[in-house]
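ok posting inputs for the 4'-deoxy-4'-aminopyridoxal-5'-phosphate job
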Amino acid sequence: MKVYLNGKIVDKRAATVSVFDHGFLYGDGVFEGIRSYNCLVFKLKEHIDRLFESAHSIMLNIPLTKKQVTDAIIKTLQANKLKDAYIRVIISRGNGDLGLDPRRCKGETVVIITDKIALYPQTLYKGGMGIVTVPTVRNLCEAVNPQIKSLNYLNNILAKMEAINAGYQEALMLDHLGYVAECTGDNIFVVKKGHLYTPPQCMGSLRGITRDAVLGIARKLKISAHEHVLTRHELFISEECFLTGTAAEIMPVIKVDGRVIGGGAPGKVTKEIMKEFRKLTKLGGIKYKI
Ligand code: PMP
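and the output
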């Protein structure tokens, strides 16, 4: 496997960063997770825009233009001859000293990893998954805003561990007031009386690119979709529920905290959206050749 590291395509074994990198020492950096489907990088512009926004918010300079990041991603995919891939772009503050001061860091580290991915087994996409609310609440917007896709994912990792301890694969995270925020690596939607609802970003979630794609699909299918404050109760009484994310794509949820949703099988709207999403992955992206 080949990895992009600071302007060079190197072998996986040579793709190492310093222990003084503030990405390693403090989680000081940003990242993106992107997919390519049959030589089409899905929503690449949107991912690169979000990468630059995350970096801007934490005052991190990306030492490449958006076009250069795009080219570097394509080059890495080509070096690995991958038609279908999961792409991870990481920009860290770079090598500094043991203090927090980012001014001590001497130039950012840029890494692009491309690999194959299968996050969840196909059986879950057919039958749906159960999720569980965990005690760890989502980061406050005033602390580390969840809209920043930073290297500091401990909030999500703690929640993931709590879900695993409870025998589940994914955790439902609430905000500090008890409203639904999102899952550890996915946004959440419910369907009620034919309407689609997802929490607004101010409840503490990442502005998911898959979430935006689903909102676009809803417009196309003339399903009314709303950003709305949701409690666990609304999830429990929903007709359908599903998660969205680049890695998970669209995952039907059939159980929340032991309450069966929509008869315990993926619902009609969810299945329709899954179908449309699959179509979209064949259209909306940047093409490359291998
Ligand atoms: N929330 C969190 C916390 C995430 O890390 C992600 C990305 N894995 C998402 C939501 C979904 O975002 P996207 O659809 O852009 O992948």
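notes: The longest strand covers residues 29-37. The pocket of 4'-deoxy-4'-aminopyridoxal-5'-phosphate is lined by residues 33, 156, 182, 185-187, 205-206, 208-211, 244-247 (CB under 6 Å).
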